[in-house]
Design goal:
single chain; 4-stranded antiparallel sheet; alpha/beta; Rossmann fold; globular; 9 helices
């Protein structure tokens, strides 16, 4: 608790002020400022504030190149903001941690390793005994529906199967928070929809806090307990919606379509 005294959470924006206080959040950022020096200074995040509750499925929605991945990297500890605070369970985030696992848009699998070896990679890095690694890997391989493919190499897998391996690897490492950076963006529409359904099934069985980044409004509504909308760059938290439509959700549900229209009206178009 001593580290909490070093944090100051003041001047919350109107959206954050309506939510639970910072002590209620497992992951919290306030006033994040991130810029990059290119030909001119490129401001990406401009005073961004966001709180994430434990076991929440939070979707971060925003237009292309608005800073969604930069935000995710700040939450993961991979990017240090020029200003602002990021905390996990009240303690400052000062770098990457096994408590916060990443799932990337690109599959990021080791091509020289089997499915089983890829899933167990994080466990091996932590020094987990071989028998225990195999037991845990088998559990999550089964959870994502890849039993029978343990000895297959990534080149033998479809895109959807590769992303299942990525999910299994992230879960197997035991993070408390999963940070997912447009993980289904490279998939065709049919496979993407199947993976959305699969992800929700896995999340229901193995509850974790999930922060899912997308630029797809339908995907955001289909998956999220809550959807937060980022403005165009330099990004602020523009608006948020609690999604109360029960699962399984239908893309053609009138309530779903009405909510899609609401969000579309606030969505910044970027050419």
């Amino acid at each position: 608790m001593g580290t909490r005294k070093n944090l100051t959470f003041e001047g919350l924006g109107p959206t954050a002020a309506k939510a639970a206080p910072p002590s209620e959040y497992i992951l919290f950022c306030q006033g994040l400022m991130v810029s990059f020096q290119l030909l001119d200074q490129l401001k990406v995040l401009d005073g961004f504030t966001l709180g994430v509750k434990e076991n929440e499925f939070l979707v971060v929605l925003g237009p292309g190149q608005c800073g969604k991945t930069v935000l995710l990297n700040c939450l993961a500890g991979l990017q240090e903001p020029q200003a602002g605070l990021v905390s996990f369970k009240g303690a400052p985030v000062r770098g990457p941690s096994a408590e916060r696992g990443l799932v990337f848009q690109k599959y990021a699998l080791f091509p020289w390793q089997t499915v089983e070896e890829n899933v167990a990679w994080g466990l091996k890095s932590k020094g987990t005994a071989k028998a225990e690694r195999r037991r845990i890997a088998a559990k999550y391989i089964e959870l994502v529906g890849l039993t029978g493919f343990e000895k297959a190499y990534p080149q033998a897998l479809s895109g959807g199967m590769k992303q299942r391996v990525g999910l299994a690897r992230a879960y197997a490492s035991g993070p408390e928070v999963l940070l997912m950076d447009e993980p289904f963006g490279a998939l065709d529409a049919q496979t993407r929809y199947a993976m959305e359904k699969e992800l929700l099934t896995i999340w229901e069985k193995e509850k974790r806090t999930v922060i899912f980044v997308t630029n797809n409004i339908e995907e955001a509504i289909y998956l999220g307990d809550r959807v937060v909308l980022m403005s165009k760059r330099p990004a602020k938290l523009k608006k948020e919606w609690e999604i109360t439509i029960p699962h399984p959700r239908s893309y053609t549900d009138p309530v779903f379509l009405a909510l899609r229209q609401q969000i579309s009206a606030d969505y910044d178009l970027v050419l």
